[in-house]
Design goal:
heterodimer; A: about 90 residues; alpha+beta; three-stranded antiparallel β-sheet; 2 helices; about 20% helix; elongated; B: about 325 residues; mainly alpha; two-stranded antiparallel ribbon; about 65% helix; globular; binds fe (ii) ion
Chain lengths: ~90, ~325
């Protein structure tokens, strides 16, 4: 059908000072209705304090085939993790 | 079960790609919408998730039928919340299906013109309040048994939808059990009604898991791809084993004289449902098939002016705000 409502991605902040998290999507004619629908679809059990919606076609995403070039460079940088360094016990908390 | 007899497609892709894909699944990785996947995996999933979504939506009809006639305000509020959850379940699942490249309206049209199916159970009527209890307890109970393993399915969006659904389902089963328990522990007439509901809904509930493994020819590929996690008979047995003690707790007679504890197998034996009835209901000849589809078609047609009106309003507002900039 030609007149399908656009798809919106829904992000919700849970109770505990967390960042917004993607929870799913829904259809709505505009942002206002998308937020109202998101309340009904995704927060029926106190799952949220705040809702973001964004039209799905405004999201740019990396492609699965870029996995190598994007993430492999960080694999060789083990020194970014604190466990890389040997700190003697006598030094105390660090 | 909400997806019964999903026809699976034979894989016809490049063997090397197929093997790499299978290896990912065997390693327990989730497949995400933008990842490469065999065309048959995509097609089978659209069918299965779509059928599952349609079942959630059509499943609102037999229960919605009793919202205005619930015996107390509390029962009414509970049933209303339960039915609203089912709408939510349908929406989570439609979203998951849409990530595979089918549109919401396409899915809806395929339901409305009968190209896609929904679970056979919703073609049986809810004749009285006791049936509403039995549906929550038995039908949602069976749904839980099917859906819990699907939380581990290989397709990421489907798995996440199942996790949300499962979080909400125990409420459904418990409210149903609570409602039928009231009947079973009530007056002799009420107890008789509870018994009658169990007798009528038992075999249709067993049918929810789909045909017996001997006849279900589509399982192998779906099991390898972790679209299907257990065979129909495994899940059906689990349901029987879990439910028989509950029927006994309610003080009701078992709805099938063939139910007997089998010490050797460590399971209850039971009588298979009448599969010819099952196939007949799937074909469209159940007691309520015509009503259910007519109700969905009417809702879709009657809502057209609302969908169009809201879209036109949104476009006008957007155009006005562009003009104002
Ligand atoms: Fe559901
Ligand atoms: Fe449910």
């Amino acid at each position: 059908m030609k007149n399908e409502w656009p798809l919106w991605e829904v992000f919700i902040r849970g109770q505990h000072g967390m960042s917004h998290r993607h929870v799913g999507s829904l259809h709505a004619p505009d942002a206002e209705m998308a937020i109202k629908n998101a309340r009904d679809v995704y927060t029926r059990r106190n799952e949220g304090l705040s809702i973001w919606v964004v039209e799905a076609n405004h999201i740019a995403a990396s492609s699965p085939s870029d996995k190598g070039p994007l993430y492999e460079p960080s694999e060789s940088k083990v020194y970014r993790h604190p466990t890389f360094f040997d700190i003697p016990d006598e030094v105390g908390a660090m | 079960m909400y997806a019964q007899m999903v026809k699976s497609e034979a894989a016809q892709d490049d063997p090397e790609k197929l093997a790499a894909f299978q290896a990912r699944i065997d390693a327990g990785e989730k497949i995400e919408p933008k990842d490469w996947m065999p065309a048959a995996y995509r097609k089978t999933l659209i069918r299965q998730i779509g059928q599952h979504a349609h079942s959630e939506i059509v499943g609102q009809l037999p229960e919605g039928n009793w919202i205005t006639r619930a015996p107390t305000l509390e029962r009414k509020a509970i049933l209303l919340a339960k039915v609203q959850d089912e709408a939510g379940h349908g929406l989570y699942l439609y979203c998951a299906a849409e990530t595979l490249g089918v549109s919401r309206d396409e899915l809806t049209e395929m339901l409305l013109d009968g190209r896609m199916k929904y679970s056979s159970i919703f073609n049986y009527p809810t004749l009285n309040w006791s049936d509403i209890g039995a549906v929550g307890w038995l039908v949602d109970g069976a749904a839980i048994i099917n859906q819990v393993p699907l939380q581990r399915t290989s397709f990421g969006p489907y798995s996440r939808a199942m996790i949300r659904v499962c979080k909400e389902e125990s409420f459904h089963a418990r409210q149903g059990f609570d409602a039928i328990r009231k009947m079973a522990e009530g007056t002799p007439e009420q107890k008789k009604m509870a018994q009658d509901s169990v007798n009528r809904l038992w075999f249709p509930a067993l049918m929810m898991f789909g045909p017996s493994d001997k006849e279900s020819v589509h399982s192998e590929q779906s099991m390898a791809w972790k679209i299907k996690m257990n065979t129909n008979d495994e899940l059906r047995q689990k349901f029987v084993d879990q439910t028989v003690p509950q029927i006994e707790f309610l003080g009701l007679d078992l709805p099938d004289p063939g139910i007997k504890w089998n010490e050797e197998r460590g399971h209850y034996d039971y009588t298979d449902p009448d599969w010819s009835e099952f196939f007949d209901v799937i074909k469209g000849n159940g007691p309520c098939n015509t009503d259910r589809l007519a109700a969905r078609n009417k809702a879709w047609d009657d809502g057209a002016w609302v969908r169009d009106g809201l879209m036109a309003h949104a476009k006008k507002k957007a155009a006005a705000s562009v003009a104002a900039e």
